[in-house]
């Protein structure tokens, strides 16, 4: 299977290295923005406490889905990194 992501050199996480990885990242970002729009995150005067809680739940679900989908397509082990190994 072709790898779409690599671990970040600093910190925890992964970054896209192929167009497929960038597509997944773009879709994820778009879904976060749509969730914010639907939950009135960009209009604070209309946002209720339930809207904010729904947004946080959407965010958590999308993060878990992104990690679950991306880890098998990541080259190497995702862990805390402090830069290049010497």
Sequence-ordered SSE layout with sheet pairings:
Blueprint: E1 5-7, E2 10-11, E3 14-16, H1 19-38, H2 49-70, E4 81-82
Antiparallel strand pairs: 1-3, 2-4
Short characterization:
By secondary structure, the chain is mostly helical. The protein contains two helices and four strands; from the N terminus they run βββααβ. The longest helix has 22 residues, at 49-70.
Q: Could you describe the 3D structure shown?
A:
The strands form two sheets. The chain has a two-stranded antiparallel ribbon with strand order 1-3. Strands 2-4 form a two-stranded antiparallel ribbon. The chain has helices at residues 19-38, 49-70, and strands at 5-7, 10-11, 14-16, 81-82. 7% of the residues are buried. The protein is mainly alpha-helical and 86 residues long. The mean pLDDT is 91. Helices cover 49% and strands 12% of the residues. Helix 1 runs antiparallel to helix 2. The protein is built from two helices and four strands, in the order E-E-E-H-H-E.
Q: Structural class given helices, strands, pairing? A: mainly alpha
What does the largest sheet look like? 2 strands, antiparallel
Tally of DSSP helical segments: 2
What's the rounded overall pLDDT mean?
91
* Helical content class: 40-55%
Work out the strand percent: 5-15%
Distance between the termini: 29 Å
Low-confidence stretches: none
How would you sum up the global shape?
elongated
- The largest beta-sheet arranges its strands as 1-3
SSE series: EEEHHE
Over the alpha carbons, how many angstroms does the gyration radius reach?
A: 16 Å
Write down how many β-strands occur, each being a DSSP E stretch of 2 or more residues.
4
């Amino acid at each position: 299977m072709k790898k779409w992501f690599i671990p970040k050199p600093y910190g925890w996480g992964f970054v896209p290295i192929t167009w497929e990885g960038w597509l997944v990242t773009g879709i994820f970002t778009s879904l976060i923005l749509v969730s914010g729009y639907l939950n009135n995150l960009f209009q604070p005067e209309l946002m209720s406490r339930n809207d904010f809680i729904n947004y946080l739940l959407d965010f958590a679900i999308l993060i878990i889905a992104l990690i679950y989908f991306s880890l098998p397509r990541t080259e190497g082990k995702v862990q805390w990194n402090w830069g290049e190994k010497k």
